[in-house]
Amino acid sequence: MKNLFALLLLGLFTITAFNSCEKAPPVFSIGYDGDLYEGESICFEASSTGYDNYAWNFGNGRYGGGSPYCNTYTTAGTYTVELTVTSGGKNYTSTEEITIKSKPRKIKIKKITLTNVDYQSNWDPHDSSGPDAYLTITESTLSNTGTWSKIEHYQSPIIQNVTANSLPLVYTPNIELSSGISYDIALYDEDGTSDHTMALGAYIPSLARAFPFTDTNITLDFTFDSAKGSVEIEYIY
Q1: Which residues are CB-contacts of 56 (< 8 A; sequence separation ≥ 6)?
Q2: Based on the structure, what is the number of domains in the chain?
Q3: Domain harbouring 40, CATH code
Q4: Which one, of 118, 116, 131, lies nearest residue 223 by Cα?
Q5: d(CA 214, CA 69)
Q6: 47 and 21 in one domain?
């Protein structure tokens, strides 16, 4: 009986010792780097390293291996990202829920305000008056042959004989344009058949790459050549 009791104690000690030698499951989480918007590359990685294998399920029908691993979501929505790591012949899984947001499909250029322009130059020598200013919004396109051309989306009415008392110059295009293209704002002095460029620059950037889209309406300040002002834009989803 004593021998049986001793054997039971020995077995219990052996099992306890064996269990204490087993590795605890790895503790890890999923991190990511990138903007959570549709069409943007987001790179995911495990919070710790040294595993034998990494298997990703990004929740949008795409899978990958390794860490870090980058994925692009083409549709807005909520996704569950799952990472399974292998350590010591066993698999361990962690998940992370992310929400991918939509980008605006279009922008509406609501108002352009010029608070400063070069009205002091002798723009109209024949009568020594100020410039007859008008504003354009254009898009530059590159053809298959490598030739650049401009598409004019807006030309404002002419403001005659601009002086200090004329400022600010306010234009209200209220036009809808694609959000994935950069546009040029240009200011001209109308002078018959030979208009003069007063200010020129690309100051409405490709808003498809501007983050974050936290508001429906934004105001961008700009300076180009001698002109200063702002443009009010509405995002259209």
Answers
A1: 44, 63, 64, 65, 69, 71, 81, 82, 83
A2: 2
A3: 2.60.40.10
A4: 116
A5: 27
A6: yes
Please tell me whether the peptide bond between 131 and the residue prior to it is cis, using omega within 30 degrees of 0. Answer: no
Q: Return left, alpha or beta for 164; rule: phi > 0 is left, psi -120 to 50 is alpha, else beta.
A: alpha
Q: What's the token pair of residue 72?
A: 């692009």
**pLDDT tens series, the chain, 237 aa:** 544 344 344 444 444 444 444 555 666 789 998 888 888 899 999 988 889 999 999 999 999 999 999 999 999 999 999 999 999 889 999 999 999 988 888 889 999 999 998 887 777 655 667 889 999 999 888 778 888 888 999 999 999 999 889 999 999 999 999 887 888 889 999 887 788 888 887 567 655 445 556 678 888 888 877 888 888 888 888
* Parent domain of 19: 12-100
Residue written as token pair 């990494």: 54
Distance between CA atoms of 138 and 107, rounded to whole angstroms? 14
Stated pTM of the model: 0.65
**Distance between CA atoms of residues 109 and 232, nearest Å:** 6
Tell me: do 172 and 200 sit in the same domain: yes
Q: Which residue has the tokens 């002086």?
A: 163
Spatial neighbors of 9 by CB under 8 A, at least 6 apart, are none
Does 168 share its domain with 94? Answer: no
